[in-house]
Structures are given as structure tokens and as C-alpha cells.
Task: structure prediction
Amino acid sequence: MKLSLHPRERAGEIPLHDPLGMRSLTAMNRAEHQARIREGEVLCMGGQLAEGERVFRDLLFEVRGRDRKAELSALHSLAVAYGMGGRNFEARMLAEAAAAVARELGDDKTLARCLGSLCGALFCLEVSEPMPRLLDEFRDAIQRLPEDERAPGTHEYCGSLLAHALLTRDLGAAVGHLARYEQTFPPEDVRDPTATAVLRALEARIHYFGGDQNAALAVLEKTEGLAISRPNIAVEVAVHWVEVLRAAGRDAPALERGHQALRLLEGLIDEPFTCYDRLEKGRKLAHYLDELGASEEAHRAYDIVAAAVLEHIAQLDACARSLPELGLAGDMQLQEVVNARKGYVAEQSQIMKRVAALLERDEGGVARVLAHEDDGFVRICAWCERLKPQDRGWLPLGQFVPRSGPLRITHGICPACAEALRV
Result:
């Protein structure tokens, strides 16, 4: 679970790779390899994930079978890049492959980092079953390191322990793991407003899961006025306010917080690496806004979620094509990708049903969605589930391939379905 703010991360220098031990490369090749890894890092940190991915993939093809240490560096860099982009299936598979190479080489430092990436991907995928075994291996790898090299791995390990406790709702363990996780933050991170917001949001979530909403609200109050520098964290805190207030039966302040959260969520559309956040936070927010009777705002939130779902479907399609090319996916892994894709398609269908219900409650809704055909959005008919990209006709969902960059979706009704409703 990557929640901390590493000092180099704040400086825009995320440490994606471990350059140690490239002894089987010549000095010139080693320098070139490290320069290209750095090039990929810079591209990823600048929001150019596809370009960074291409650099890492090309490197992996070049060193595969020639130099296992260089292969490990490229594999883990690509895994972290996918994790940054919310492409958690690819991140999981690549981290597993990188961990296997690290075990083969006896590289405990990189093994620990691979296991941290793997646990982070599993947390995002809400898969807890493999984590106890991985956490035991994670702990052992850290213990084999020299004392002065253990701090980064220990921090990631404590975060992974907390992630597992939250997934399994082991709240007693979560309290202890959160305390240890906070203790492993570097002093400058503990004082950072964004890190403070992350820690307090985690603490509030533990109280929320335990049913103590007053305690959760008291903790969330500590996030008020913080200058949160990461937009996805600001959205997470805002949505959690809505969640806790709704659970406490305080609907009026929950609705006010919901409006604030929606504005923050809409601000994520053009932010890199936010597909996962738009899906997970948007899904919750749309549900609460709908429950609170804010139909128009719920519709806007569902539009954002639908775009994120389509992006995830496109990413899974890319995963099914790319991982076998790298020799990193067997039948079992590909079947997991297929099952996940089916789940997202089913979720898209459920979103459309909810939006159709919202529009049917709004007497002017159908007229409005028919009135704005050329506004730059991809329109989805909430009744027949077809899409209309710009300058194209209505297409079945399976025939639409999103282009790179932010995808802007709005749910409405196609002319055929509108006419049928009038009959």
C-alpha cells in the first residue's frame, strides 16, 4: 500500500528501480540501461505513462534471457509504472514475475520492494488470500538485509500489514499496524499535511468499519484546513466525510460535503494516474448522492465512474495482449483478466440502469440529453447501452476502443430509445 511521501517522490524523483548489481553488463551498457530506466521514470512522473511503459517494455525485450539483473530492474520498473497508473492486474503480474527473478538472484532488497508492489496491487484489487504468505516472505527478506538498509522496506511492510487488516476487517490488528506504520514515516513526512491527511483518513476508516461514527468524525476534523497536495488524497478524504456523515444519519452536512467531493472528483478527470481513484471514489460518491436525493449530482458522478470503467476495460484488453508477448501470463492469469473484464462490463450495465432511473425521475432529463449532441463527450444511452463517440454513430459497447488521454462520458438516451419511450 503506497501511501507515504518518499522525499524523492516529493521532488519528482520516484525511485522506481534498483540499479545495483548490473555486473554482467559492460560499463557502457550499464550506464545506458540506467539512463533509459531514468528516462522511463521521468516520462511516468510527467503523466506520459504510455511512453514510459514503452521504454520499460523495450528494455525488457532487449535484456530478457541476456542479463537477469537488468531484467529484474526493467520488470520492477514496469510493475511500478502500471501501479502508478492504476493498472493493478498488470502491476500484480509483473511484480510476481519480478519477485521470482529477485528470489532466483538472492536479491533481498529488490525482493522486498517487489513484494511491497505486489501487496499494493492486491490491496487495490481487494484480494487478500495470498497476502499472509507474501507478508511472511516480506518480513524475512527485510530481516536478511543489513540494519541500515531496512527502513524503506519496513515502512512498506507495515503499510502492507495495515492493508491486509483493512481488507479482512481485522480492526484490532489494524489499530496496531496503523500505529507502527505511522512510526516508520520519516520525520519530514509526518509533518507533511498530505501524509497527515492519509494517516487520519486511515484512522477514521478503522472507526467507521467498527461502527463508531462519532470517533470517525472526530478524527476527520483533524484533516480540516490541511493543504493536501495530492488531488486523489483530497478526494478520498472528502468522500470519506460523506460516507461517515451518512452513516451517522446527518444527511444535510453529508449532502454539503457531497457537493464538495464532486467538485474535487471532477478535478481528477485531467489528472494522470487517477483512473483507479475515479472509479473507486466516484462509485461511492454517486451512490451516496443518489441516496441523498441529489439526482443531477449523482448523474455527474456516474458519468465519471462510467468513463473510468471504460478505461479499465481498455486497460484489461491491453493487458490480455501485452503480457503474453512478454511471456508473463499463463492461462490462469489470463482467465483472471477475462473475469475482471466481465465484472467491469456488468458494472457498466448497472450504472446505466441507475442513470436511466435518475433520468426517468427528472422530467426534463431526456430533453436535455438530446439537446447537446456536439459537446465533446462520448455519450452512452442508459437504455440500450450503446455509445456515440464524437463524429460517429451509435456503437455497441464492445466495439468502442477509448483513445489515450482523459475520457469524458455522459449518460443520456439515443434518439431511437427516446422515440420508443414516447410511443
